[in-house]
Write a structure and sequence with these properties.
By secondary structure, this protein is mainly alpha-helical. It has one domain (2-149, 164-392). The protein contains 19 helices and 6 strands. The chain has helices spanning 2-6, 15-29, 31-41, 61-83, 95-103, 109-129, 131-138, 141-163, 187-204, 210-229, 280-309, 321-337, 349-354, 360-373, 385-400, 411-427, 430-447, 456-469, 471-478; strands spanning 89-91, 166-168, 176-178, 235-237, 240-241, 343-345. Strand 4 (235-237) and strand 5 (240-241) form a beta hairpin. Helix 9 runs antiparallel to helix 10 (210-229). It is globular, with a radius of gyration of 22 Å. The relative contact order is 0.21.
Length: 479
């Protein structure tokens, strides 16, 4: 029955290889259950409340972890059953950072999730109408690479800042510096460096699950150090801080490792509430930024997995292409509706394909593992920033590798790509980088007399970004 439904023999695989591939994919990307709560739970919304806690008293990380694992499990199983493709889904890295620091800081968390749901619904409509291909073709491939590279640098900077390796100066012309007043101090920094070294070592040795092993190893070290030295938190009160303390979680073992998961975050969204806090144009541009990331990340991931699995068809697509894209688009809306940010396809699925996965059965196995993880949510509260942030630095590196595919000899591409890449981390805003890249590309192409190379849709988007950048003086002028 399994062989017939998933076409296992037809694709040259076996049930054993599919199960093994599904397990490897899970262990390769399970870090998101630990990392997503730290990214979302550590930020505050426009009302100065922690995103995952619904209060000003602190984040509820197990709550985010349980919802993250639940939604990832359901969607990954859906991908396996409907799309029959060895692809796992979970909350998107980069997208969750953008939502937490670029969107939710302007409004409530529910309002931000409403924008994510709207973006997912729009992508679903675009998939069903076939318009997704047209939008994808409007942006030059070189700028797509630049967007991924810029997001990678942005993620890496988030990791370095949250770990305490890089800190704000507070005074002087230089905004950031190494550690505390130019010095690396405290045991938490040691935990970060050990985690980073472990992940790099395992990646170099091509060890499966390198990121997950690195996070677990660093967490164990953090628990031991906290038990021995009573390090405490970095933030004690508005008037007093401890530069040698932990950034968010204090690593100590919980009383119970397992617990009945609570899913209070599910349904915590307001579909149109965001437009009470930002203008319609700003809201549209925020949705477009999410849309852009979902579009290009998914197309690249599906193509890469298809090539590695040997599943690319004659027309360059993968089997059940429409179903695969439809499940991915539904995932974006489902992540927002569950209150944990947009969900998307994971390139880490390639690790399972490397172990032999060729069908959706591997995705079903991965999804079941995620569902089982919901009962281990209390363990997430043990993981400090310093143990998880090495993963952000490594993911930034992986995204940075695409810089080699940019044509630096063409100034019409090179300058916009450069602006896109540097402005994302320098302005702490993904949308600013994308807008600068689009606008500069259109201007340079027109100056070069190559306006025919600018897609009308890209011209429209660039115009919206110009309005976005000039919104403050325009508002003042209009009164």
């Amino acid at each position: 029955m399994l062989d017939s439904f998933f076409k296992i023999s037809q694709r040259g695989s076996t049930v054993g290889r599919e199960v093994r591939g599904g397990l490897v994919t899970f262990f390769t990307m399970a870090y998101i259950v630990a990392l997503n709560p730290l990214i979302l739970g550590g930020a505050v919304d426009g009302n100065h409340k922690f995103l995952g806690g619904f209060s000003s008293f602190g984040p509820n990380l197990p709550l985010i972890a349980a919802a993250t694992a639940l939604v990832a499990g359901i969607l990954t199983i859906l991908m396996g059953v409907v799309g029959n493709f060895p692809l796992a889904l979970a909350t998107g890295l980069g997208l969750n950072t953008f939502v937490a620091y670029g969107i939710a800081s302007r409004m409530t968390w529910a309002d931000a999730m409403g924008l994510v749901v709207l973006e997912g619904l729009i992508i679903t409509v675009l998939v069903l109408t076939g318009f997704r291909t047209a939008v994808f073709k409007a942006v030059p491939q070189q700028l797509k690479y630049a967007i991924s590279v810029g997001i990678g640098l942005f993620i890496a900077l988030i990791g370095l800042v949250d770990s305490g390796f890089v800190r704000r100066t507070g005074t002087g012309p230089v905004p950031v510096q190494l550690g505390d007043n130019g010095n690396l101090v405290g045991w938490p920094i040691v935990v970060f460096l050990v985690g980073l070294i472990v992940i790099i070592t395992l990646m170099v040795r091509k060890t499966k699950g390198a990121i997950l092993i690195g996070i677990v190893s660093a967490t164990v070290l953090a628990v031991i150090l906290e038990k021995a030295f009573k390090i405490g938190p970095s933030f004690i009160s508005p008037e007093k801080s401890n530069p040698k303390g932990w950034g968010l979680n204090i690593p100590s073992l919980p009383h119970n490792i397992t617990a009945t998961p609570h899913f209070d975050l599910l349904g915590h969204f307001s579909l149109l509430g965001s437009f009470k806090h930002v203008s319609v144009i700003a809201g549209i541009l925020l949705i477009f930024t999410l849309l852009l990331s979902d579009f290009f990340d998914t197309v690249g991931t599906v193509t890469a997995i298809g090539h590695e699995a040997g599943l690319i068809e004659a027309d360059g697509t993968v089997p059940n292409n429409e179903r695969v894209l439809l499940v991915d688009s539904i995932a974006a809306a489902a992540g927002g509706a569950a209150g944990i940010s947009s969900n998307t396809s994971y390139i880490e699925s390639a690790s399972g394909v490397g172990e032999g996965a060729r069908t959706g059965l591997a995705s079903v196995v991965t999804g079941i593992c995620f569902l089982l993880t919901t009962f281990l949510a209390p363990l997430v509260a043990v993981i400090p920033y310093e143990a998880a942030t090495p993963a952000l630095v490594i993911v930034g590196f992986l995204m940075m590798t695409q810089v080699k595919d940019i044509d630096w000899a063409d100034l019409g591409i090179a300058i916009p790509a450069f602006l896109t890449i540097i402005l994302m981390p320098f302005t702490y805003s993904i949308s600013v980088g994308i807008g600068a890249g689009f606008v500069s590309h259109v201007i340079i192409r027109y100056v070069q007399g190559r306006r025919k190379e600018v897609h009308p849709l890209l011209l429209l988007v660039a115009g919206l970004f110009v309005i976005y950048f000039l919104s403050s003086p325009l508002n003042a002028w209009i009164g």
